[in-house]
Automatic annotation (TrEMBL):
Bias (Low complexity) ranges: 104-118
EC number: 2.3.1.-
PROSITE patterns xrefs: BIOTINYL_LIPOYL (PS50968), LIPOYL (PS00189), PSBD (PS51826)
Family annotation (CDD domains): lipoyl_domain
Gene3D superfamilies from the UniProt entry: 2.40.50.100, Chloramphenicol acetyltransferase-like domain, E3-binding domain
Alphabetized InterPro entries for the sequence: 2-oxoA_DH_lipoyl-BS, 2-oxoacid_DH_actylTfrase, 2-oxoacid_DH_E2_comp, Biotin_lipoyl, CAT-like_dom_sf, E3-bd_dom_sf, PSBD, Single_hybrid_motif
Subunit structure, as described in the record: Forms a 24-polypeptide structural core with octahedral symmetry.
Record's keyword terms, sorted: Acyltransferase, Lipoyl, Transferase
Protein name per the record: Dihydrolipoamide acetyltransferase component of pyruvate dehydrogenase complex
Length: 460
């Protein structure tokens, strides 16, 4: 019998690592080909990784909560020849090999060294994202299946959320098909445990003590911890941190999932981009009632991109290339408790106002319940940050390569403006345009901003 190591595959779009949510097996268990082996969380999604072999598990290299590098071994399996095995030449979509060592730099062949970078840009656009089952190399987005583990039926993303909210899935009443537990069930259980939990089955021989819950509730406030946190935030959403009875302040907290990836991307962007910001105010005094600010912003961006395509572009410094796009895919910055997501609103230049609003709502809903496909979180050609819905006037938002521009809208205000014959009070929206000065000139950016402001000034 031979023992093979399973190396963590790339779970989508070249992410460098993933966090173990839970193992479906333990050492000594027999696992069959393509059965769920481990649930992993990346910055993009939570996915069940299937076993590439059939046999007995001899070693697990990590435990729940550990961050594993892509290409690192995660388990060893003793191959059982009597069970189904995949042929060596059969494509599974997995990359069952350790992470390759970085080759020594070749000073004599700069053109050859630049070739992989150009290839990678194309692969990002065509990436199939993270799917459940054997990860096939296609663009088809597959739906997560609710697996029954320990008598609890739920998809991986729901299990991950339950773990983070400290919700026992075994006591949650599922509202989905065949009793499957949904994301809404978990959040309801975290916000109002009494109404969402299924009463535990009484055991005559060993009654459940009542002292523990009483102590937990009474020990939350008080001078001993100085920590009193409600189970829901001011927005009515479950607080995604430690329970109120646990003091977490003053202790280092490792970055996980989305926040870890956000820190990495922002650091790389800061090191690569040469940002310059132009600021101005959009006078929207002429707007008729019922205007959708987000829709109007996206429409104005589309028109500005058509007038100055230099800002609706990608820039590749390594290859000294610029790609101007005919389509306009707007990356919409979405703030969550888990970190920043930027889903792509595809073909914004072909959508009317109603379609834009429906698409934005869909993307925000999918981000909130972590059901968004990884392929929807990349490939946008320009970005929009509507931070003004919270606070702030002007900003210098970060451009994430290969994009070269991001539009930011601040908090609207009323302002006295001079008009012919006197002064008036107008509604103003502050606009900030940050662009990569390596790829666009100041004149191109200024003309882009003027078209955007002119369209926002229109009545409808």
């Amino acid at each position: 019998m031979s023992i093979k190591s399973f190396f963590l595959p790339d779970l989508g779009e070249g992410l460098p690592d993933a966090e173990i949510v839970s193992w479906f097996v333990k050492v000594g268990d027999v696992v069959k080909l393509d059965e769920p082996l481990v649930s992993m969380e990346t910055a993009k999604a939570v996915v069940d990784v299937p076993s590439p072999f059939s046999g007995r598990v001899t070693k697990l290299y990590g435990k729940s909560g550990d961050v594993m590098d892509t290409g690192a071994p995660i388990c060893d399996i003793e191959i059982d020849a009597n069970l189904p095995q995949r042929a060596e030449a059969q494509d599974t979509g997995h990359h069952h090999a350790p992470k390759p060592s970085k080759p020594a730099p070749a000073a004599a062949a700069p053109a050859a060294a630049a070739a992989p970078a150009a290839t990678q840009t194309v692969e990002i656009r065509e990436d199939a994202g993270t799917v459940v089952g054997a990860m096939t190399a296609s663009n088809e987005v597959k739906q997560e299946q609710a697996l029954s583990v320990g008598g609890v039926k739920a998809v991986p993303a729901v299990r991950a959320m339950a773990k983070k909210l400290n919700v026992d899935l075994g006591r949650v009443r599922g509202s989905g098909p065949d009793g499957a537990i949904s994301m809404a069930d978990v959040k309801a259980a975290a916000a109002n445990p009494a109404s969402a939990f299924v009463p535990a089955t009484p055991i005559v021989s060993a009654p459940v003590p009542t002292a523990a819950p009483t102590v937990a509730v009474s020990s939350a406030p008080g001078p001993a911890t100085g920590f009193d946190r409600a189970p829901v935030s001011s927005a009515g959403k479950p607080v995604r941190t430690t329970p109120p009875t646990v003091t977490a302040k003053g202790q280092p907290e490792p970055l996980r999932g989305v926040r870890r990836n956000m820190a990495r991307i922002m650091a790389e962007a800061h090191a690569q981009v040469v940002p310059t910001t132009l600021c101005d105010d959009a006078d929207i005094n002429a707007w008729i009632a019922g205007q959708d600010i987000t829709v109007r912003l996206i429409r104005a961006i589309v028109l500005a991109c058509k007038a100055e395509p230099a800002l609706n572009a990608w820039f590749d410094m390594a290859n000294q290339t610029r790609t101007l796009h005919n389509r306009v895919d707007v990356g919409i910055a979405v703030d969550t408790d888990e970190g920043l997501f930027v889903p792509a609103l595809r073909n914004a230049d072909m959508l009317d106002a109603r379609a834009i609003r429906e698409s934005v709502n869909r993307l925000r809903t999918q981000v909130a319940d972590r059901s968004i496909a990884p392929s929807e979180l990349s490939g946008y050609t320009i970005s929009l940050s509507n931070f003004g819905m919270f606070a702030g006037r002007y900003a210098t938002p970060v451009i994430v390569p290969p994009c070269v521009a991001i539009v930011a809208a601040g908090r609207g205000r009323h302002q006295v403006v001079p008009v012919m014959g006197g002064i008036e009070t107008h509604k103003i929206i502050p606009i900030s345009l940050t662009f990569d000065h390596r790829a666009a000139t100041g004149g191109e950016a200024a003309r882009f901003l003027k078209v955007l402001l002119d369209d926002l000034a229109r009545a409808q």
